[in-house]
Design a protein that fits this description.
about 425 residues; mainly alpha; 18 helices; globular; disordered N terminus
Length: about 425
Amino acid sequence: MAKDIDIKQGIDWTTIWIYIALLSVGLVNIYAAVYDVDSPQAIFSLSHNAGRQILFLFVAFALVMVILFVDFKIYDTFAYIFYGIMILVLIVTIFLGSDIKGSRSWIKLGSFSLQPAEFAKTFTVMALAKYLSTLGVNVSKFKYALRAALFIFVPPIIIILQKETGSALTFASLVIVLYREGLPGIYPALMIAFILMFILALIFPNWAVVMGLALVGVLFWYLFLKRYERTRQNFQRILGLFILFSGFVLTVDFIINNVLAPHQQKRIKVLVNPDIDPRGAAWNVTQSKTAIGSGGFVGKGYLKGTMTKGDFVPEQDTDFIFCTVGEEWGFVGSFVLLGLYFILLNRILSLAEKQKSKFARIYGYGVASIIFFHILVNIGMTVGLMPVIGIPLPFVSYGGSSLLSFTLLLFIFLKLDAHRSYKV
């Protein structure tokens, strides 16, 4: 500990100021979302979510102090133990968790509830960084990539059993980490291709998508492969991909109708065609886009959002907090918020590349991947580009679990980076 006590010199203050700025944006917009024109209450009142968020902020600051003054070596040394404990907690939550909105993913702590799935992201990133930084591990080889994938996908499988699909999907973003550490590009490319096939199968008849795949295969063979490349081996590869993608396309309807819950089916379908249920599953997204669009260039003004005050958008202080930003602060406010996120992600990646420790570098990329996925999907669903899967906007949405988990995720990396920066 003697060489690591001057935390003020080693910590990256740029990232901390961005963190504070995002917390401030979140708090003022949570207050705007819950503000009642007819009976206004102070922001500090515990009778609404803005006041409760202030309590969570104090807990988050206490958590920061603990993280910064605990020996940095604990995160690498005990990564597998933390991961194992979290797996057990996730399993226990299935049986003992409280049922909230159809999901058994919450643990009651008095008048508050915590969602272990949010914290599982941090410990999964930690365990993945521990494994990938082990001497001899090379994810360009299939057996190591498979083991790394098990670290990533065991927690979301358990989380899906809790009926918390949104949080489970977040773990897929850690493929970015594997790619950075040497995973062949074919694997991320296949993942993107499957997502594209899924979307196409929703929009067009299955037979049309399969015919389109066949046409793409033929065009690729004759237009993009040179004559000497038209070998039997390449033909078998193209045929294999055609069979793989066609088989997946033909199973999309089965997956939607038999695997997904009814409300999830509707969310997927209204993403493609909002008109099929305008006052049901499509209501949130329709009202969200209307609220954001009504803000115009500079917004309607703080606490003056008519759609916000009329409660037209459900969950506007949590999953749909971006609507409040768009309506009351307009394009300018939205641009500033996105700018803060861009600077934060760029800063994390920049610091990650400077790490002398492989564990710290990999962990940093994991932090950036998780935060990026949340930003992309959350804002995407508020503007109708992503299905509504119920994940928060980092540091901005209301919620103790969300705030504490993102704080834990970020500040462990800042602690690791502070050790890298410390001058003996």
